[in-house]
Amino acid sequence: MTAVGIDAVEIWTGNLKLDLPGTFAPEKDEDPEKYTKGLGLNASSFPDSYEDIVTMGANAAHRLMERKGLDPDDIGRIDVATESAFDNSKPVSTYVAGCLEQVFEGDFHHANKGERKFACIAGTQSLDDAYNWIRAGRNRGRSALVIATDTALYARGDAGEATQGAGAVAMLISEDPDFVTLSTEQGYGSADETDFLKPNQQFPSVDGKRSVQVYLARMREALQDYEQVAGDVHPDDLAFIPFHTPFPGMVRKAGLLGYRHITRDTSFEDDLADEIGRQPRSEAFDTDEEFHDALREYMDALKDTDAYQEWYAETIDPTLTLSREVGNWYTGSVHIARISALKHALEAGRDMTGKQLLVGSYGSGAQAEIHSEIVQDGWEGEIEALNIDNQLEDRYDLSWADYEEVHDVHNHDMDVDVEEFTAPDSEFVFDGWGRMGERK
Ligand code: HMG
């Protein structure tokens, strides 16, 4: 059976940066460590006034196609995964294709274009669609372009405001890929939930604390479901576990839960699933508070073991480096966690070829998916080609007044005049409706 997976990848970060301990915390009158230690974030990437999901997606895809020497004829499918779409009819992929056709010879007339939506998990669902399309033999030798692009903005004053972010990840899905192959085996945990949603609204309505519990419940179900088809997972078999990362503190919890599950630790008498999601707590505890205290005590004890700390430092922590600097990219988030881990491995001189990743994707609403990936021998070249460090360094550092202004510019309910800007060289820029994505 031909291997199918991610052949190449490129990232585009929003061109602005909001410093959380330095700028956000003082304005909110909060201890900076709430953000750096509690949530695990140093900064958010923010879109400039001339950036949106189309420009970021097109800029990432342009870089990817140029680097791989691809023409539109090489692409049989373009899927954009986003939860920041602005058009209820025309998919974002058509806007992105329009941008790319300005700079490449030929066009995407014979490519199937679409848009995927299921909160943050849509990026991984688009990978699945591409995988299935190739496996079904419908690709005619062509590759699929998958673009996960979002401006993950919250209303000002919302608890989620500190976790904002903006960026795009473009991925080329092909036969015999250079980067990673995807497993056929998948596990799902899926249930109708209303902790995070945007019904006809730009900014989400969020029950933040509950969203954390729902994430853990669905992720655990997905892991169990995955083991039904792939067999038991063992911690030593996994080089890294990139999880969906709304903020690194969330993944600290997911890592602990995953570790408890895959080491089959039974020292806690109750099943963790009873505490999270919709199921009732165990009858062994008289009150919720009693249960939560016992659970926290158990988790704290597990967290303090040498075995766990060593495993976390090797397997989970390296997946979080980029997220700490950019915040939540929604659909792109789990895909920058994978890149972050492999970038760490490259810098540490580790040979990753043939190593296994377990990838935990999640979308509110809510669904988790687990699959595994095997790193291919072109991984080093792919990671070396990324210029993510330069992109992060080049971001403009927003003052609080700048931040408020640019947040208003992106707020669809406000009619803010955008000051004339000097368009950056070699970027697609949003220049007003109807002239979207023009490349200067
Ligand atoms: P909050 O009220 O700002 O923060 O909300 P908190 O008071 O809960 O504190 C956060 C952590 O910082 C806690 O750690 C505190 O103890 C710690 P924990 O107990 O959880 O381990 N802390 C400190 N640590 C050190 N020094 C200090 C300090 N102060 C506090 N001085 C919340 C946090 C997550 C609720 C909020 O950020 C939020 O609503 N975020 C948006 C929703 C979200 O991201 N949910 C995550 C799961 S859902 C998901 O991932 C899907 C999503 O990506 C969307 C999609 O799928 O489309 C969001």
TrEMBL record:
NCBIfam families reported for this sequence: HMG_CoAsyn_Halo (NF041302)
Transmembrane parts of this sequence: none
Single GO term (MF): hydroxymethylglutaryl-CoA synthase activity
Entry-linked PANTHER family: 3-HYDROXY-3-METHYLGLUTARYL COENZYME A SYNTHASE (PTHR43323), HYDROXYMETHYLGLUTARYL-COA SYNTHASE (PTHR43323:SF2)
Pfam families (UniProt xref): HMG_CoA_synt_C, HMG_CoA_synt_N
UniProt-listed GO biological process terms: acetyl-CoA metabolic process; farnesyl diphosphate biosynthetic process, mevalonate pathway
Entry keyword annotation includes Acyltransferase: yes
Entry keywords, A to Z: Acyltransferase, Isoprene biosynthesis, Transferase
Domain Hydroxymethylglutaryl-coenzyme A synthase N-terminal, residue spans: 4-175
UniProt record similarity statement: Belongs to the thiolase-like superfamily. HMG-CoA synthase family.
High-level lineage: Archaea, Methanobacteriati, Methanobacteriota, Stenosarchaea group, Halobacteria
Domain Hydroxymethylglutaryl-coenzyme A synthase C-terminal: 195-411
Nucleus in keyword set: no
Source organism, top-level taxon: Archaea
Name listed for the protein in its UniProt record: Hydroxymethylglutaryl-CoA synthase
